[in-house]
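Weekend entry, working from home. Most of the wet-lab plans are on hold until the incubator is repaired, so I used the time to fold the two sequences that have been sitting in the queue since the last round of cloning. Logging both here for the record. First:
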Amino acid sequence: MYCKNCGAQIPDGAEFCAACGTHIKTNSNALRPTSVSPPPAAPQHRRNNTIIIGAIAAVAVVLIAAIVCFTVLTHGKQQAQLAQIQAEEQQAEREAKEKKEAEEKAAEEAKQEEEEQKAKEEEEAKKAEEEAKAKEEAEEESKSEVTTVNNYYYYNTGNPSDDYYTSVTSSGYLWPTDTQYITSSDLSGLSRDTVAAIRNEIYARHGYAFQQTRWQNYFAAKSWYYRDESCTASTVSSRLSSVEQTNIDTIVNYEESMGWR
């Protein structure tokens, strides 16, 4: 007879199938006639199990491969992200360092520039102070003594007379423009002729040879005037002191502001 479960041939009177272990009910099972064809050579159940096991194995392989790929990709992505974070941190550190160095350099340059400016200002202040002091000393010196060369009002001796200022004042001397600086306020209120006389006195002290009859007669009446034919418009400037030249410039500017020139 044959097993109803797997179709395997089993001996008569057996209680269990030797192939699949199915319990054989003897009271309902009859011996199959010998003319019945045997079942297929390969059991169907075993083939199904093989297919299922193969499918499971294939799925497992695919899953393992997917897990491995996912792990590799995830690890690579994590490594790339980590590398990017590290690169960004390093870049930030470099930028912070460069910024700090730039700020320190700018502060140092600003400090150096400030020190140089301060030193320059101190130098200029010192120079201005020295110039002011030298000018003051020169003015004091010019007030205390007359150093003009070839001054004929010294009676052509080269040395000033003790009674010089008394003498020239009594004979019409208007202003000591060889020893004192004159200002516009000093000239304010004076007539045009008086201002012109003060200006020409500066030239007359050096013996200037006036060409206008008016000034020839005016200074010829002064006891201190000595006419020098070599003292002309082209030579008199070289005989003027710095005080006299400054006073001439002041007087000329005043005359121009009054519309007299």
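Second, folded right after the first finished:
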Amino acid sequence: MGERDLNRRYTLVLDAGTSCAKCFVYDDEGRVVGSSRRAWDFVESGEAYSLAREWEPEALWRAFCELIKETVCGSGIARGDIGSVAVTSQRQAMVFLDGEGYTLYAGPNLDLRAFFEGAEIDDAYTDLVYRTTGHLPSFLFVPAKLKWFARHQPEVYERVSKALALGDWLVYRLTGEIANERTLAGEAGLLDIGSGEWCHSLLSELGVMFDTGRLVDAGSVVGRLSSTAAGETMLHEGKPVVAAGADTQCGLLGIGVHERGEVGIVAGWSAPVQMITEAPMYSMDASSWVGRFPVPDRWVAESSAGDLGNAYSWLVNMLCGDATDGFEAMDAAAGRVSAGSEGVQAIMGSARTQYSSPRMRTGGFVFPVPMTLSELGRGNFARAALESAAYGIRANLDALELVGVRTAVTVALGGGMIRSRTLAPIVADVLGREIRMSQSPDASGLGAWLCAESAGGGFTTLDEAADWAKERTSAVEPNPHVSAEYELFYRQWLELAERMDKVSL
């Protein structure tokens, strides 16, 4: 997939995720030798009320430059030893450029300013949008955001020439080359998801056009580090820069999921459940997503258990404060509680995300009262939250198996939530089947390294790279007796989730 730099020893990976920006240095065996991360710094936008989130573009670029320098310095290696750079990013995070390459807007996937514009699109074109792009609701995607600018900031809209995903914009800043990686373009609502080409007809129908350009596949060298970017990052000019694509699909590679019927859960900020398919698989009620996979002629069918990682981190912070070992403390407490959490139930996500009709839902904890008759503690709530995550994963896996008309061949788990060592055994017990667990919580970073290795000749294909990652996952077997208990608890949780779904605040 490209020429191999014989002097390359290390790969630098930028992973612009939902929770934070991360940077890693990997050696040629896929080991992390240096890493840094920093929280996102959004700016206020008075135009878009409380729904808006955006970055100041130059401050965002400077933050990435500092992150790169910090990571390389902390790794203890010489900057000249970085042989290539790979970039992956959160889905739906977008940047708009004018005809001169100036950044007009940069917003994360949490920017919901186009909620009303998206609703208008869906009222008129729901079926067309879903059958073309594989994604709903429209307020998350580029056409609705362009309509928002056309309505609220027409002077900006008239200057928009290019639309780039965040990862593609970082590649542009590193190389000066403009290209759209396919998985990211698909997750931005810009592709005919079946053909993998620009959805020009839909964009024309919606009345939002811009200058579409070069589409590239994950694992492609888009360009080489420019002299300007080299000076700003302290890396060496001329190093190849690889597009690694959407962070969730990249994470699937990192946990070894790539063949038809395999399912991966990259449980980070959110917990999307994705099945590899050999053709686009649409749900009858448009309640699941269809996305591109980095390997050509493969797609992903996706359902989601919601922002489980974000919700669990909130719980850890609330119960453990600022303790550096909050996850470990919660794990230890949860491990002392038996299946079912002694009657405590949690709704931390959705039994099944309805992409066609998204809305706020009611969550929380239900536990036995009066408290004088129980001795509930942190462990009960920690385990109940992890069980809720596992129940949500099962409900969404069941839904995907209906969409894909087949039982999952394998199920693999990765992402930041596996920092909780209690989660994987609970998921295996709730599913009643073996799962494969990644050794590293940074699945997307590892997937980006695999893309760089494939581009440089370390692997002949991304399939071979994913098989390498699969060999490094470990099996987690269910306990048959506990699985039998969880059958009852899971049914009770589904009933609770249905009742809670009707509660309004």
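Plan for Monday: verify the second prediction. Residues 378-404 form the longest helix (27 residues).
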